[in-house]
Amino acid sequence: MTKKIAVIDGNSLMHRAYHAVPPTMNAPDGRPTNAVFGFLAMLLKFIDIANPDALICAFDAGRPAFRMEAIKQYKAQRPPMDDDLKVQFPIIEELLEAMNVPVVRIKGWEGDDVLGTIAARDEALGYETLLVTGDKDAYQLATSKTRIVTTKKGITDVAIYGPEEVLDRYGVTPAQVPDFLGLKGDSSDNIPGVPGIGEKGAAKLLQQYGSLEGLYEHIDELKGKQKERIVENRDAAFASREVATIVCDLDFPLDLEACSFPSFDSDVVTEAFRKVQFNAHLNRVLKLVGKEAEKRVAPLAIEPVLKGADAVALVDAAIERGETVGVSVVEPEQISLFSGGAQCAFGTSEGTALLEDEEGLAVLARVVRQGSFAALDVKRTLHSIYPADTAERALVDDDDLMRMRAFDLSLAGYVLNSSVSQYTYDVLLDAYCEGVLPETKDEASRAAAQAAAARVLVAPLTEGLERDGSTRPYFDIDLPLVAVLTIVERTGALVDCDRLAQLGKSTQEELDDLSARIFDMAGEEFNIDSPKQLSRILFEELGLTPLRKNQRGYSTDAAVLKELEKEHELPALVLRYRELAKIKSTYIDALPRMRATDGRVHTCFNETVTTTGRLSSSDPNLQNIPVRTDFGRQIRECFVPLGPGQKFLSADYSQIELRLLAHLSGDEGLVEAFCSGADFHASTAARVFDVPVDEVTPQLRSRAKAVNFGIVYGQQAFGLSQSLGISFGEAKEMIERYFAAYPRVRAYLDETIAHAKETGYAETMFGRKRHIPELRASNASQRGFGERTAMNHPMQGSAADIIKLAMSEVQRRLMAEGFKARLLLQVHDELDFSVPEEELESLSTLVKGVMEGVAELRVPLDVDVSWGNTWAEAH
Fold first, then answer.
1. How far is CA 813 from CA 3, 264, 808, 845, 853, in A?
2. Looking at the domain covering 494-599, what would its CATH class be?
3. CATH number of the 4-172+247-274 domain
């Protein structure tokens, strides 16, 4: 009987997975699980490809004495295993045991030897063997019945090697692999080999002489340095071969005929995988036996579900009792003559009220005005009774929104961990109520379940915020902003479509001209937007030097084109073409189509997207319009005030993150520079370059400015050298001079990183935490990213908190003091308004006063206020 048995080199795959998967996952008990996650991803990918009849996993359990005696330094250079990897081995073994996969660990032997022994036993039984490992030693085991499955890149890209593939890849047969390693050595295992003999040299010698014995029998045929090295290192070559030779006759019990896969108990697997919250992997494993994971339904009090007058009375009674009502509005997926409208559900302690369309929306409006409520996404829920399009009737007004008592579930989840990609009912229920929503058959039952879930999640999320010390950023900053953003989104922004059309026409003319020039230089027409076709033109037709390769061929990204500008004019034209084409499609062509019935563009401001606490903008993204380019300015010229007799006013924090660095670090020099009112970048240049302020040249000021902002963003010498076009040494010296001039800054940044490594997070001056799992990464570049993030978050996150606080207070004051001016946009550190001309002076005073006074710092917050007929003119 033919049988295919796969043997997994557990240590090899765990190490590869640990370094391939970011350390962002933890089991409920806090143990990291990234390596286990990656291991299972590789294993499941392999099972899909190979469909083995049996699975076995081997782990190292020491190093054989004969290898240690042959080469004293064998694997001695390997650092001890990271603690975060070590604690994951028991987890993977528990999961493998649950999957009924035999785990073999033989004291004093390595996993390779277990693989070799099982392969030999399989051969004797006539079985086919697949050895899954990243270790090159295993290629010696390849035969007509034994093949090696190795990961090429990442965790799911695999290649399968038989004898032919080994020969093609290395130029030697599997039987020659030990001799091959004996000659070339293996630095990863500290196997010395013969110095100076590499892969090609070793392969060539073995092709000629067959083995080490054959080589040394014909040593006189060699010449020069090569002969000298081989003669001098004879003992090392044979010792290296001995160490690299896999043992294939270990003695341990394993009934290969009885092994089979999949042969596990689905209940046992479910319990084990849920214990570490591997729900996605669980579903894939259960599908192997034709099953699906049963959803654990969260304990929700949905019944009784009341309708009509009884439902209205139920909600009124809950409002009277002062309860927080869970709210869900579910729109029909398909609107037809026969389907109902929006399903509005209200979860209370006495049951669920279910009302449809206008009746339900009227009750929702009453809950917003008079009661306390919770929803997954409060702003989205509000838009059902307060539409973003001003042409549609609103059932509540601005005052109602500013006074409402709401609890936003997704926002609470975000404040607790801003690194999570989704804040759905199922994600929150799974994390805080150990279950998910029940299966529902229609919109009405789904709305009822969601309303009950919204109500039940308030308490655990509130407790979570209190336990985490995150009540201030949630209740004082993010939650009050929901009403403000809802109002701002309904206000919208007005676009001058005639001016936009003119800009579109001139842009198309420039694109046509660029295309013609590009085709002329290339000597042919091609698709400029195709990286593959552009790559052919640049590197084959024009003969430019390829700089970087990706999966699709040679890279033509912006960084590569920027570098290639030095060789040829065409890359610069392509960069300009791409810039114009992207902005034309994203803004010039799209904005007129995105206007609502009221003629305005209504962007969506998102509070739960960025990891820093900053708002983001979408549909359309008005925060991404380039600020400093001429073309970006032309786009901004198309944004105009809401009506005649009004101006576009912009209020912008000046150097807020640098001011926060001065405040948080307490560096006397930085504080003094800001408090003096002098040009900050010039003051820094004077300190860093040791010249009087009046002798600071524009170039020195520009360099000091680059260092100032680079420090805030954790930029290192390499990055600074690239941005300024100077040598690495020069950049390094500038940074050292900066820290010498402002010594408390260096100390503060070091303290911030140390605190983040200790706690796992960095936080703003208002207590907003950003969890940074990369700080624990063994990969140096990931760890470096984590350290830069830790340095930057207190400044960038605090700046985000400050603009949010200012935005809420400005909106409150606009309404309290009867201004007709409307807040239109927030773009990072900038607030934009449409203002009647008669209110310009008074609004400027109000906005500047609020923005500068919203936080008390060691240095003054400075706000620039300006206005004009367009958004561009207001800068």
1. 77, 65, 9, 12, 14
2. mainly alpha
3. 3.40.50.1010
- Residue 771 has φ and ψ, to the nearest 5°, of -75, 135
Query: Cα(765)–Cα(582) distance, rounded to whole angstroms?
Result: 38
- Phi/psi class of residue 37: alpha, beta or left (left: φ > 0; alpha: ψ in -120 to 50)? alpha
In this structure, what is the dihedral angle of CA atoms 693, 698, 702, 704, given to the nearest 10 degrees? -20
Q: For the beta carbon of residue 675, count every other beta carbon within 10 angstroms.
A: 12
What is the CATH number assigned to the segment(s) 656-798?
1.10.150.20
Token pair recorded at residue 233: 């290192």
Q: Which two tokens stand for residue 566?
A: 């030095």
Residue-wise pLDDT tens digits, 481-513: 999 999 999 999 999 999 999 999 999 999 999
Q: How far is CA 560 from CA 397, 461, 546, 548, in A?
A: 52, 47, 8, 8
For residue 269, the 8-state DSSP code is H
Tokens (6 digits) for 518 = 């590009």
The answer to whether 208 and 165 are in contact (CB under 8 A) is no
Return the structure tokens found at 590: 């799209």
Please tell me the total number of residues recorded for the chain in this structure.
875
pTM over 0.90: no
3-state secondary structure 740-771: HHCHHHHHHHHHHHHHHHHHCEEECCCCCEEE
Distances (CA, A) of 329 to 278, 302, 326, 608, 636: 31, 15, 10, 20, 36
Each residue's pLDDT tens digit, 844-874: 999 999 999 999 999 999 999 999 999 999 9
Euclidean distance between CA atoms 96 and 22, whole angstroms: 22
